[in-house]
Write a structure and sequence with these properties.
With 542 residues, this protein is of the alpha/beta class. The protein is built from 19 helices and 16 strands. It has 3 domains: 12-211, Substrate Binding Domain Of Dnak, Chain:A, Domain 2 (Up-down Bundle), CATH 1.20.1270.20; 218-347, Rossmann fold, CATH 3.40.50.2030; 368-539, Rossmann fold (3-Layer(aba) Sandwich), CATH 3.40.50.2030. It has a 6-stranded parallel beta sheet. The chain is globular. The relative contact order is 0.11. The chain binds iron/sulfur/oxygen hybrid cluster (FSO) and iron/sulfur cluster.
Length: 542
Amino acid sequence: MQMFCFQCEETSKGRGCTQQGICGKHSSTAQLQDLLVYMLKGLAVVIQSGGPQVRTDPELGRFIAESLFMTVTNVNFDDARLTERLQEIIERRESLKSKLGQGSDLDAVNWCGDPGQSLSKGALVGILAETDEDIRSLRELLVYGLKGLAAYTDHAAILGFEDPEIYGFMIDALAATLTESAPNRLLDWVFRCGERGVAAMALLDKAHTSTFGHPEITRINQQVGTNPGILISGHDLKDLEELLEQTQGTGIDVYTHGEMLPAHAYPAFKQYPHLVGNYGHAWWQQDKEFAAFNGPILVTTNCLIPVEDSYRDRIFTTGQVGWPGVPHIPDRPKGGSKDFSPVIARARTCPPPTPLDQGELVAGFAHAQILALADQVLAAVQSGAVRRLIVMGGCDGRHKQRAYYTEVAQCLPRDTLILTAGCAKYRFNGLDLGTVAGIPRLLDAGQCNDAYSLAYVALKLKETLGVADLNDLPISYDIAWYEQKAVIVLLALLHLGVKGIRLGPTLPAFLSPKVAGFLRERFDLKPIDNPETDIQAMLAGA
Ligand code: FSO
Ligand code: SF4
């Protein structure tokens, strides 16, 4: 075994990647990421010893969030950047230790090997270092929740929105993964992580809507123009804004890809006529679609898949994303903007994109817009015109079983509404699902983090309909997951008290039978079955 990773849904054989990641991660990268997480735990212990002020220091909090984000699936494959980050963690830890005059016997607080020893150390301190499968399961569930939390926290911080308590929690929880081994206490940390997940998603929602306005119902063009284009992928709306500013008047068009699609619905982006449309589908098809795009591609967050030769000379990364040998646009200087001129210069040399799709997509059903339709939705629910709302959010992926989600969307009766968020929508947003009671049957709230919007709508419906329990609403949850942001969304929903969630296409490999059994018993969390059986069950409220 050269590595062990089971943090995403596509893990090898549903058990764990042991030679190389299905995602393309080499064993060296996996070992560096394992060591990075381990060293962050040690840094967290040192930070804690500095008391409340150090614990909620935003500069340290941002550093921890960014570092965790680098280890999320499909973010950073660049061993040189990971090694550099490891050195930074050690330097910060050592300087804090001497400043605070605090030490500890823990290895993660003291290990100072040189970079040549990182791989062997990473192999020693990885996931399997814990031999009890239930403790390992709970610990990893918490770490993956924290990775998702870190990603959303980082996005909000980039827009200037921060909550020191979220940073403080991240530090306490990371430290707890080293110092806690009682299952009930670890479980408690997991649930508290879900609570912080709600706070982080709310913060990011506030960051997005107060910076770019509230999403509005928007028709999004899928056709290509005749100018050279830049394709921007990932979730970072600040990067999109700066790219649009820097490409104004250059004769270069900008297209969104993957999770950048919902950007079209924000009022702030409508002022840029050269933001012409969306190109392509979910992340896993990027090898073919990036090749066909012909122009430069800017990847701002996950999901990045192994870079193909056909577009290697015109792909750029930024933020926490990295691929060896691919040019990286550095972070913005304090108070300034990122410099996308290398991307723009590359675009000038490229032909326009090859057409891929025709027609339009509709998005922009975040909470403000759905609540603007609230009277209509409520009346339709109360009159029985709408029988049930089905939340089908989350992630897309390569596995054939994900055709389940297309089939469910196609086969759900016409008196149901589908609420979605995240890249899972690419399984059904091209279908003509029509309207019910004048309401479009597919309501797309936005990115995976906009699952917050869906939870917000559910809470508002509960209040308006005067039902005692969220689970008494005519809403079913049929969630698709792939990586660790989906883990924090799941923990957030559990924290809100949502029961009966269907999770697919497979349950996480990191849930031990006992932990999965516990979640089933307490929250009725279950795997998906076949579309017909699940549709019948959801319509019956099960
Ligand atoms: Fe998808 Fe990838 Fe948004 Fe994830 S593009 S899979 S949950 O990174 O973040 O929904
Ligand atoms: Fe395997 Fe997923 Fe880990 Fe990649 S992130 S190594 S595919 S489990």
